[in-house]
Specification:
CATH class of the largest domain: Mainly Beta
Helix content: 40-55%
Radius of gyration: 23 Å
Number of helices: 13
Structural class: alpha+beta
Strand content: 15-25%
Distance between the termini: 42 Å
Order of helices and strands: HEHEEEEEEEEEEHEHHHHHHHHHH
Number of strands: 12
CATH topology of the largest domain: Jelly Rolls
């Protein structure tokens, strides 16, 4: 059975974590809401009991939740994060957009942030659940593609843990959840956790089918034979991010006409050159806001080539899933 061994979890991310146990449905609903998200809980059998514990790996939150009775949880949409449900015992059913997906120790569930769903947990069902921030996923996907997504990531819900890629995910999770030290345990743990987080996100984007999978495959295939003019153009804009450059400037450096450059760039990168430039400038602005050097959002936006604060904020939120103000307040 493709399950996650409790001893590994006890020795890793959940080590020293407090276990909340309750026979009161209202009390447990409160704890689960604080850990995951607001939801409606419908208890469908007698003898309610539940337990919950939680931990973290980088910006990802992890929890182990068990219900001893039959319950239905209806959170609607998650909005801010993607949820991966990995069963240790029992079965559950996810109802989504008129479909039903049966989850078991052999079938994990990948719930996208924008998909309305509800879940029916059978008696004595125990999940390990991983919350990945939506902004992290979309930022990584944008980086792989080389341009803004222009839409929300939508994953296939079922992840078959018996397949080679499913087994790879299982082993990755056993390593991440079993080996990751608690955040307070050592000074280098943020670095360790960061690498684990990147590995989990990369696996999902590459191996779990979603609405940008084909675009990622094309981007990977096209990168093998990218024309030198595209590479030269990318180098030029990276070297002149803070300068007022034009398409003509870039095309001249790349050694081709503007029309040839635009066509080649869109064909091999899937977006316009100026869209790529805007994305790099947004990344630069975000890094500066995260340093907390006291500069205002307007000043940072202007330095990175955004003359309209409102449009900058809209583009920023679309790319990173949060406003410049929220980044500045971290």
């Amino acid at each position: 059975m493709a399950t996650f061994a409790p001893p590994l979890l006890d020795a890793g991310v959940f080590k020293n974590s407090e276990v909340v146990r309750s026979k009161d449905a209202h009390e447990m609903h409160h704890h689960v809401t604080n850990t995951l998200s607001a939801h409606h809980l419908d208890v469908r059998s007698v003898g309610f009991r539940a337990s919950l514990r939680q931990g973290s790996v980088g910006s990802m939150r992890v929890c182990e939740l068990e219900y001893g009775s039959i319950v239905q949880a209806d959170p609607g949409r998650l909005d801010d994060y993607l949820l991966i449900q990995m069963l240790q015992a029992g079965q559950s059913r996810v109802y989504h957009e008129g479909n039903e997906t049966l989850l078991s120790c052999d079938m994990a569930g990948v719930i996208a942030p924008t998909i309305p769903f509800r879940a029916l947990w059978e008696r004595d069902c125990r999940h390990v659940m991983l919350k990945i921030p939506r902004s992290k996923l979309e930022q990584a996907c944008s980086s792989y593609l080389g341009h803004d997504l222009g839409g929300s990531l939508q994953f296939r819900i079922g992840m078959d843990l018996r397949t080679p890629t499913g087994q790879a995910w299982k082993h990755l999770m056993e390593y991440v959840l079993g080996s990751a030290p608690p955040a307070e345990s050592c000074a280098i743990s943020p670095i360790i956790h960061g690498h684990m987080e990147e590995a989990a996100i990369a696996h999902l984007l590459i191996h779990q089918s979603h609405n940008f999978s084909e675009a990622l495959k094309r981007a990977n295939d096209s990168s093998i034979n990218v024309p030198s003019c595209v590479r030269r153009a990318e180098q030029y804009i990276e070297d002149h991010l803070l300068d007022a450059i034009t398409l003509t400037d870039v095309a001249e450096y790349a050694g081709v006409s503007v029309s040839t450059l635009c066509h080649s760039f869109r064909r091999h990168r899937g977006s316009s050159l100026m869209c790529a430039l805007r994305g790099l400038r947004l990344e630069g602005a975000r890094k500066e806001l995260l340093t907390g050097n006291g500069r205002s959002i307007v000043d940072v936006a202007y330095e990175w080539g955004f003359n309209h604060a409102g449009r900058f904020s809209i583009s920023y939120r679309k790319r990173f899933g949060e406003s410049p103000t929220q980044t500045l307040q971290r």
